[in-house]
Specification:
It is a single chain. By secondary structure, this protein is α+β, with helices and mostly antiparallel strands. The protein has a single domain, classed as 3-Layer(aba) Sandwich (GIY-YIG endonuclease). It has helices spanning about 25-35, 60-70, 70-80, 80-85; strands at about 5-10, 20-25, 45-55. It has a three-stranded antiparallel β-sheet. A hairpin with a 5-residue loop joins strand 1 (about 5-10) and strand 2 (about 20-25).
Length: about 90
């Protein structure tokens, strides 16, 4: 069985801020966020999944997460999701 990885972006209904994460089990991770089990987001629930990307290589997914958290990555995200974030 091939491993798979996701880079995902959540938007908080509470403060409208984005959270960028990386996981091998998107459904499980989204549940953890929703239940407030993730320390870095527990004070910002509820969330909506607004974007995700699928990878078959863990290193590619990790690099994409790092990029999206950078200044250039944020610029790219806001360009791609401009209507979603409006």
């Amino acid at each position: 069985m091939t491993e798979h990885y996701y880079v995902y972006i959540l938007r908080s209904f509470k403060d409208q801020k984005l959270y960028i994460g990386f996981t091998s089990n998107l459904r499980k991770r989204l549940g953890q966020h929703a239940r407030g089990e993730v320390i870095s987001t527990r004070n910002r629930v509820p969330f909506k999944l607004i974007h995700y990307e699928y990878f078959i290589n863990k290193d590619d997914a990790a690099a994409r997460e790092v990029f999206l958290k950078s200044g250039h990555g944020h610029e790219q995200l806001y360009q791609i999701l401009k209507r979603t974030l409006a």
